[in-house]
């Protein structure tokens, strides 16, 4: 296993991550897609993995789910300059399938080091994969969304993935309920 502590800043982490070949996903995608937003941002959002548009453009959440996410973030008054967005896996799974457990495991040290270096005040897991990876493997998104816990010493919560909202409009209300709590939490530390 790579020693992640050797990457002391986000740029050196990115440079190494771009060269990663730890699982088979890299063979089937165009590029490693790591993030967008401000690495000094206090709110970190974690999705699943890049889709077709992300793979083409090299940035996370730029396709339809990303456009919806931006609307949600604006409605929740989370300013782009304080938000950092990434995914559990950094390479697009073929046909947008779910990343396999082994792929997630191989990619996890990158995400863990990203969290160390970004050091957000709050992490929002978008969808079950991020929530099960960072909160608990037993988490069920329908049952457990909106609950708060800790990842190391960071407050963390989970809500439905924006792509799920595009498939099922009924999920919009619970997601908005979750983001209202996130908005209020953010307001409390915004002025710090
Ligand atoms: N879905 C994700 O989980 N991440 C992206 O970057 C795009 C779609």
List the helices and strands and how they pair.
Layout: H1 10-18, H2 25-28, E1 35-37, E2 43-47, H3 52-57, H4 64-75, E3 83-87, H5 101-118, E4 122-126, H6 128-134, H7 141-144, E5 148-151, E6 154-159, H8 162-167, H9 172-190
Parallel strand pairs: 2-3, 2-4, 4-6
Antiparallel strand pairs: 1-3, 5-6
The protein binds uracil.
Describe the overall structure.
- It is a single chain.
- This protein is of the alpha/beta class and 192 residues long.
- It has a single domain, classed as Uracil-DNA Glycosylase, subunit E, CATH 3.40.470.
- The protein has helices at residues 10-18, 25-28, 52-57, 64-75, 101-118, 128-134, 141-144, 162-167, 172-190; strands at 35-37, 43-47, 83-87, 122-126, 148-151, 154-159.
- Strands 1-3-2-4-6-5 form a 6-stranded mixed beta sheet, with helices on both faces.
- The relative contact order is 0.17.
- The chain binds uracil.
- Uracil is lined by residues 47-51, 54, 60-61, 63, 65-66, 87, 163.
Key descriptive features of the protein:
single chain; binds uracil; alpha/beta; 6 strands; globular; Uracil-DNA Glycosylase, subunit E
């Amino acid at each position: 296993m790579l020693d992640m502590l050797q990457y002391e800043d986000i740029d050196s982490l990115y440079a190494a991550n771009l060269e990663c070949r730890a699982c088979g996903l890299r063979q089937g995608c165009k590029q490693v897609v790591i993030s967008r937003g401000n690495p000094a941002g206090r709110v970190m959002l974690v999705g699943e993995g890049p889709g077709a548009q992300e793979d083409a453009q090299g940035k996370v959440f730029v396709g339809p789910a990303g456009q919806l996410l931006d609307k949600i973030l604006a409605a929740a008054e989370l300013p782009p300059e304080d938000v950092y967005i990434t995914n559990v896996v950094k390479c697009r799974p073929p046909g947008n399938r779910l990343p396999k457990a082994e792929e997630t495991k191989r990619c996890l040290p990158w995400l863990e080091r990203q969290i160390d270096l970004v050091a957000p005040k709050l992490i929002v897991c978008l969808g079950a994969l991020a929530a099960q990876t960072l909160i608990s493997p037993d988490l069920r998104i329908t049952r457990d969304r909106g609950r708060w816990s800790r990842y190391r010493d960071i407050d963390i919560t989970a809500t439905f993935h924006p792509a799920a909202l595009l498939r099922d409009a009924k999920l919009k209300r619970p997601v908005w309920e979750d983001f209202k709590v996130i908005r209020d939490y953010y307001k409390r530390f915004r002025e710090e």
